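Table S7 (text form). Paired inputs.
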Amino acid sequence: MIKKLAKSIRQYKKAAILTPIFMILEVAMEVIVPFLMASLIDFGISKGDMNYIWKRGLILILFAALSLTFGAFSGTFAARASAGFAANLRHDIFYNIQGFSFKNIDKFSSSSLVTRLTTDITNVQNAFQMIIRQAVRSPVMLTLSLVMAFRVNSKISLIFLAVAPFLGIGLFFIIYKVHPIFVRVFNTYDKLNNVVQENLRGIRVVKSFVREDLEINKFENISNDIFKGFTKAGKRVSFNAPLLQFSIYSCMILFSWIGAKLIVSRSMTTGELMSIITYIMQIMMSLNLLSMVFVMLIISRASAERIVEVLDEKSDLVNPENPVKNVKDGSVTFKNVDFSYFNNKENLCLSEIDLNITSGETVGVIGGTGSSKTSLVQLIPRLYDVTSGSVLVGGVDVRDYDIESLRDEVAVVLQKNVLFSGTIKENLRWGNKDATDGELIHVCKLAQAHEFISSFPNGYDTYIEQGGSNVSGGQRQRLCIARALLKKPKILILDDSTSAVDTRTDSLIRKAFKEDIPNTTKFIIAQRIHSVQDADKIIVMDSGKINAVGTHEELLENNQIYREVYYSQMKGGDFDAES
């Protein structure tokens, strides 16, 4: 785990190395100061030698100034190294997530990934800074102070060795008991983030159904779980302070008692006792800092494990050794395809799929909710891999293509249309970053979006809020269709992406497709018969299988499912208004 995280230090290695070096120099200066103070008291103040006092005083000031300088350098480099490490870690996680397949993303919830990119990385950043500073300072201070204390008086310094094991065992017991609690707490953080994201994303629905109390109650329950977890961990960690204080004051009492006897018997000088007491404080302070480092490491260990889990996750979709980079045409063939989201042949989402689509055909896909219409088309751009069988695009198995090259030729307008914060132009250019304004206008006319865009005061420079919240559902769908068309794909997949537009606009969009992109293979998933009845082929899906394939007239005559849907919609009028 440490080796994996250390890779993210990269260009900040120099700062990470210089931090402990300057910290060691700072500690060395601090440890020498009590020794100089002892000689100042014993040979200067006790004897009234002002010349000696001035000389020792100036040396003390010099060492104090050096300690301050080294400390400032150490702090500067530590801040640079820890902030840089955290920035690299965020980059590495985010970069790795971009390579995830849908299956990998399904493994981690979006709220969990957000927590790992924020709270967990902050914890690891703080721990890293403490490791390169305090985790170096404390042992070095402890070691050098012990050496100096034994040099001053070895007998009285043995008290340290008696107290150290007691303190070490206590700290180990605290770490052992607290770590599992923090693991549970950070997993609960994921749930909290999920509730917050879900609430903010669906705030209009929450308010329209007057369900604020339910959402507040849900938030408070999870927040209370986190409170209880941290409280439980805090109670156990709180034993750290009294344990440390008990050790410090026990040493102080023993040193004072034994030291007084040694001074009376002239086995120790006053200056030596003062320096020993100073070394006691330095040792105990270093132990106190070390215990704080331990607590921080307990917290960050759970976070580090969660971060490494994401870094170690590898996409199950990888390029072959010599990938095909040219997609010949938009023909699509399914050969005895079975598919399961969990690679479980006993729980198939699609089974026994055999299809042959000629390049340039318009294919309608219709079926009830849960009939796996979306699952079928997601196999074409290789968003998922088949469990068995094969999917061919342009006569080549999709697993033999370079993934990026394949997806460049397949444009998908998903069921849940997503627009990003930015202008309309910026959103459209996701389809082609080099597209001219003329090309933007052309595809928007095809998608029946130009008219409403022109009605905005800023036209194509109108700013779209996050998620497209400042445009209607129908407008959002048409912008997403225009964005997909800008790719000039060989295959265009519309996954129920005209459900929010009226039937007239839907007809105009399909008419534009037929006239302007006749060579593009078009898959239109729809709930409305009206949206697919002019297709060259219509696929009727039922329970993950193809129930029938044919034209509108053929299916109306021969397929019961299609006929029932058609007559139920005709009877109901099937008039959808733009939302």
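Next pair, protein 2 of 2.
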Amino acid sequence: MSSTSEKKSEPAPAPEGRNRIDLTVIIPTAVIAVAVVLWGAIYTASFESAAGTAFSFVVDTVGWLFILATTAVVAYAIYLAFSRYGSIRLGADDEKPEYSTRSWVAMMFAAGMGIGLMFYGVSEPLTHFHTPPPGKEAQYDVAMASTAFHWTLHPWSLYAIVGLALGLAAYRFKRSHLISQAFVPLIGEQRAKSWMGKVLDVAAVLATIFGTAASLGIGAVQIRAGLNETGAIDGGGIALVVGVIVVLGTVFLISAASGVSKGIQLLSNINLILAGLLALFVVIFSGAVLFMLDLIPTTVGTYISDFFAMATRTAASENGEAAEWLSTWTVFYWAWWISWSPFVGMFLARISRGRTVRQFVVGIVLVPSTLSLVWFSIFGGFALYLEDIGRSVFGDGTLEPQLFNLLRELPLAPVVMVIAMALISIFFITSADSASIVMGGMAQYGAENPTRWVTMLMGTFTAAVAIIMLVAGDGGDNALESLQNMTIIAASPFVLVLLALCVSVQKSLKQEAAAMGLGRS
């Protein structure tokens, strides 16, 4: 082993100020978050108007950047998997993985299985069938391939690159868990600690706040739909959605304050079991098993054949008719994934210590992508099967109740719908709690176990922003649109950060390969 590797195997000293508050991160974050909340609460109409204007500007002027940047990241992730850098470890050269492959895969599934899959599992394939992508006809394979495009290689490549950058910085080079520290190879250590690094860290925290807020908002409106569909309530507008966020928000804040991680781990394991049982129940009692199995290969085939057409679709496609569709689907998804990438990337980095670059990229891109494809083939496949036999659950096209419309077609429907709401609620709690801890760490020089009040503060900001995002959409038919618009706006600055991060990763890997004597690929 080289002297460089020996040095890396030594325990890293705790950076000065590791347990202190980084005021240069927390103050700008607090100011921006509070300003958004107050503006949205006091001057709602003005806030909604400004958000709409900003959204139109982003989609019209930089929507193409979302399209190109995310596809470039996919290409870079594929390159890394087969490059000479594949044998470099996230840790010392002789370090072994901290978790077994089985546990690692299970935790990756936990990271990828959440509110989004519960909300869109039925509604996205169904909507793409009823309202096909621009230039396409209503076909099952097109609907499923468009869904797979949004949920497989692109999001997980984004997470893999951010996670790889953070994992190399923390475990290979013994720096802290901060986005700014992942940029040291590109901007140097001094700049990473200066205002430039602080801007990067604040951008990461704000992106996470808005991305998590979007997830909480989506979960809240779907829980409201479930309460209506089960007959627990009749109606319920913005007050009910806010009430759901407040109640579940209080639970995750109590969890964050308790500092008891075992409780969250228990909830996560319960959710994984419930999700698996729910999917198995649908497979067994839907009567659509063969239809679901048929969908998998045809979805993969159409995804591959249409990949470049989907990856290069912009607002100019189909004589400009694609713009509105993209803002609702592809551009929103890319913004959502980008805004979640600091949080998910950090989680993936922490569970992947000791694995090689190749293992990391291949595992994180392929395993969750495959699980997502199976999930959509089950729930989306059952929805399309019902279309095929004339028992549509599409309704009036509103997305929120479609999962419950589907579950009503199964035996023990009321019980199954309650289980689905329990799943969404626990995902709400665990996602918000985990994201709050990660953001709290970013506000404390990359601490892995941040101070509880800082974690609670970040969680409060996130819940408050979610409420404001929903209030701007009146909590009704415009609620989802409001969440999508604000997510796209908030994630826009982080697109450039993501591209620069790829350059930084490449530079650090190239330097490390030279030090290790790895030949050119």
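The chain has 21 helices and no strands.
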